[in-house]
Write a structure and sequence with these properties.
Length: about 70
């Protein structure tokens, strides 16, 4: 059924988020994204240091997934 597929998809996405232990962010004042890889193309213009933080911390800072990685 449609509900079963939706539930399974939600579980899969939730499980994936639990597996991701750290993501990378640029601490620049205009930075808005997080990255799964420290070598992501989206981090190439970072003018400050790159930090590894938890996915939940990145999301709590208002960061969204980089378009190069989605």
């Amino acid at each position: 059924s449609e509900m079963c597929i939706r539930d399974r998809l939600f579980f899969t996405i939730s499980s994936f988020n639990d597996v991701v232990s750290g993501v990378y962010i640029c601490k620049g004042s205009y930075s808005t994204k997080y990255h799964y890889s420290s070598t992501c193309r989206g981090l190439s213009n970072c003018s400050t240091d790159i930090y590894e933080v938890s996915l939940s911390d990145a999301q709590n800072l208002g960061r969204t997934l980089c378009g190069w990685e989605d």
